[in-house]
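agent> Task received from the user: take the single chain below, predict its 3D structure, and emit structure tokens. No templates, no multimer pairing.
agent> Plan: (1) validate residues, (2) run structure prediction, (3) serialize to tokens, (4) report one or two observations.
agent> Step 1 OK, no nonstandard residues flagged.
tool_call: predict_structure(input=
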Amino acid sequence: MPNMVACRLVQIEPHFSRHETTATNVAKKPLIDLYSHHRRASAWFASMAETSAAADPAEKKQKTDPPAVSKCLLLQYDYVEGILEKRAPHRAGHLAHWKRLADASQVLLGGAFDPPSGAVIVLRGIERDEVEALVKEDPYVANGLVPSYVIKEWNVVLGSAI
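)
tool_result: status=success, residues=162
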């Protein structure tokens, strides 16, 4: 055994009562034998390492695998000046048009900027050509409230909506 010194530490522990502690009600109690403690601690750490390694493969996989990517599309509209006044007769149709896809979990988020210079809709599980066709059918586009739009592919790796 390499230069190991066995030590014994002693803790003075009072025996508590409702009265003051005096020298007569204090006992000496061995606190720890360092050599024995070292052996027990080493065994405990080894068992914890084995338990941790075998515990939950899914948790271990989460720590080592790259995050999953959810493929989405971003649809960005640019609005005409004065959109707040001009959209009123077409708003219900516009919202119903996109709500159909929201109900099918294909529209994750959608809304206008503040102030309303344009809007963004986040879509998932739908192809670009389908989005193009939906844009052309949107009452805002059909009535000239959206002079331009962009569809971008978006790789989402973080968020509660994916």
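agent> Step 4: summary for the user.
Confidence is low (pLDDT under 50) at residues 4-13.
agent> Done.
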